[in-house]
Amino acid sequence: MKEIRSYSKLINELININVDYKVAIIGYVVYFNKVYPLLAFKHVSKMNKKTVVITASQHGDEPYSAHTLLKWIQQPILIPEFNYFICPVINPFGYNHNCRDNGNRQDTNNAANFIKNSKVKELAILYDNIPSNINLILDVHGDSGKRYVYMYEHKATTLPSIAQKTLLENDKHIPYLKQKTIYGCKLVNGVLEPPKCDIGLEGAIEKLSVDYTITLELPGIYDGQQRIDGGINIINSLLYNFKELL
Question: Of the four, 94, 100, 125, 170, which is 20 to 30 A from 58 by CA?
């Protein structure tokens, strides 16, 4: 399969950028005799009581999710009172070849495969390294056919929607999808609400008693730099809105 973009170049950039996080290789996957390291950025303090997990590029044909997160982590740590575990590229083979699945034609965004010793190598690595107590997970994706941003949000019914508030706050920067339904599911202020309409990775992690599991779907049909800037603003707003609840 032809390589469309260079994951090696991205890795070098990730390792060498000046960030406030600690960078670690959490594992390796091998496809067709090529080795792909998986990186994580961490900020951990025993004083911090809340943990945020942010992931991106589960689907390799959504590269702007990784590019947005790459720019986001170059900021100073937004809320240092949180612990962070950030994995900017879960599917490096897909990123390299601009394909949705990994080198074994497996979808890395499948809740059923997020288990110990998973046959999906990337998810086995993530499972072994992800923090045990998570309060918020944000999974950054992209929808290639959309011009507007939207989110999935899984939460307890007693908790307010921080996804809706975030999209409303950023509508002038990057407009949210104002349809009433999407993919057969109800959409409220750009957010898919329960019943759960998604079997992605966040559905599995939600079983770990996470307060909020949110998927950010960046629009594929949008100006590249404006999409990155808008995505950064949304991530920042989401974290601030989560902090306000504490």
Answer: 170
**Inside any domain, residue 154:** yes
| Nearest residue to 189 (alpha-carbon basis) of 175, 168, 205, 206 | 168
Average pLDDT on 70-81 reads 94
Instruction: State the total domains in the chain.
Output: 1
In a domain, 85, yes or no: yes
Asked if the structure places residue 1 within a domain, the reply is: no
CA distance 205 to 128: 13
Assigned domain for 95 exists: yes
**What is the span of the domain harbouring residue 193?**
7-244
pLDDT in tens, 30-58: 999 999 999 999 999 999 999 999 999 99
Please answer whether residues 198 and 192 qualify as being in contact, where contact means their C-beta atoms are separated by less than 8 angstroms: yes
